[in-house]
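pinging the channel bc i need a second pair of eyes. not urgent but kinda urgent?? the chain im working w is below, pasted from the shared doc
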Amino acid sequence: MIERYTPNRPKLRKALFEGYGLENSEEKQLQLKIVSVKMAIADITYGASVGNDRIFSLGRNLMDNLKMPGFKIH
């Protein structure tokens, strides 16, 4: 959820992780990426099926960000 709503706000994502005491490890990055891919696919599918451009765009943007080399959620 963090990446979906804060694609261009890495400082906000970092603050959320630090505020909740979440670790930043390779394992955590992999877990977050897996969940994010699932969420992006669900948003793209749902947005397209109900004709909601906002939801579709959120999913598409998230998927695009996840494909960027070296992208980290935190």
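so The chain has a mean pLDDT of 84. and The radius of gyration is 13 Å. — does that match what u expected or am i reading it wrong
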